[in-house]
Design brief:
The protein is α/β, with parallel strands linked by helices.
Length: 592
Amino acid sequence: MPINSFKEDEQSVETGKMKTLFRLFSYLLVYKKEIVIVLLIMSFCVGVSLLNPLIIEAAIDQYIGTNNFSGLIRLILFALVLNVTMVLLIKLRMHIMNRVCNSILVTIRQELYTHIQTLDFHFFDSRPTGKILSRIIGDINSLKDVLGNCVTTLIPDFITICAVVIIMVCKNPTLTLAALCSTPLMALGMWLIQIYSHKRWQIFRKKSSNLNAFLHEDLSGMRVIQSFTAEPETNRTFLTLVEEHRTAFNNAVRLNDAFGSIIDLCWGIGSVALYYTGIVIIGVEQVSVGTLLAFGTYINMFWRPIMNLSNFYNQIVTNIAAAERIFEVLDTPSEITDELAVMEQPPIEGAVTFDNVTFAYSDAPSVKVLENVSFHIKPGETIALVGPTGAGKTTIVNLISRFYNATDGRVLIDGHDVQEVTIESLRSQLGIMTQDNFLFTGTVKDNIRYGKLDATDEEIIAAAKAVNAHDFIMKLEKGYDTELKERGGGLSIGQKQLLAFARTFVSMPRILILDEATSSIDTKTEILVQQGIETLLKGRTSFVIAHRLSTIQKADRIFVIDKGGILEEGTAAQLLAQKGAYYHLYMSQFAV
């Protein structure tokens, strides 16, 4: 199965920019009331902004020009009240939009996290954890300005531009044409820039993802790095990734900076054209000073929203790649989902049947991990799976747990096809213990309770005693209330393994799966664990994967798995007597 590491960029899924934007902006519809309030506030503010140039024109032509100072004072007080009110409402608008945007980011992040939890193992096996974190944290954070400015910039600035043009045309069409003569140049420049800018920001997002993936992997493996004095090599890798990240950012920003330069150039050309036309071509006799000043204000009111819109467009180009990456994950279907009309798995008795099961990974369908595998397990049997690495032992138990679906054939539990029952009702009755004894940050009690979230303290203690973990837990500083460090730091490998056993056992599973579960335990601890396992296996169907054959001698049957199938089957004594594949495995471990 192909793996995307921090050394290579992720593949982009191309989607239409407008489709992505509409999907992103659809989250605003949940907050209709708040958006309506913000739009009303902005309508008032836009109205005040449009009125200010007319107030200036009236102040010069009608009051100052006629020495009507009492009227001028009234006009000034009126303008002052309007503008102070506008400033206060702008503050209110910013508060409302910040609250709305933060709520939307929480919603998107929750949707993304919830969806990721439904995805199958293939999704996680094919990419580093750091690249997934990059989308949940960095990509989502980058959307805040786009969401906020959609309401506070796009709508009011577009209205302002339209209103300014209408007012200018009504007052003097000739001056309007002069003031707006450079807009075609602006449109052409922005169109050319956006063609290349989006691709550069996509590259930047990928480089950010690579850097996050490396950092997550590097920090998680720091003990190994320091053990082998590999710091110089990891430093070189880090510097290479940082340089790629910096270069990608500079390339993207350098092109985006051209937006502002084009707007400034067009703004300057329009201003020069306006005053040249008004003073030289038309003549000061035909255009009053107040009108010319009003037009000067209006041209600023035209180009400033254009600048804001260009910056907003810049944000869209910058962050649309992040939105695409988020929606790509949200649109990633899980290969393992409940089918329509599925039923709840009844209480499991423990019969397991493989009916001509074939399995291959979806991205390598020609490579059969298992091919036409059939067997039947009676309730309460203990089955040991042995064989070389990569033979398909873990695949068998993953199909029982429905972490993967069989490519062909059927997996049945008590006669029910696992694909025809709900995933939750199936897995809640299974106990799965792997060699990865992952512990969460929290108390010892919390980690054991993870196997059964409603477990009582008495059940937790009973589970710990069953696997002989109780004694070492009671020697900890606060016993079951001892806070564990990240990944169980401070505990020995054997102690972490015992806690993981207790976590599995507290759920009292009907089918127990032990995948190399004792591989990390020392001999003394293994003896304690085996005693607990023997007690727990009674009355339960169990699958035990083990390379240490000493741990499976009491299994009811042993399956020797290799080459996509079951080579041999029987008890330990029967297989040794056959002197076949199992015999050779046994002798390689115990022969002196």
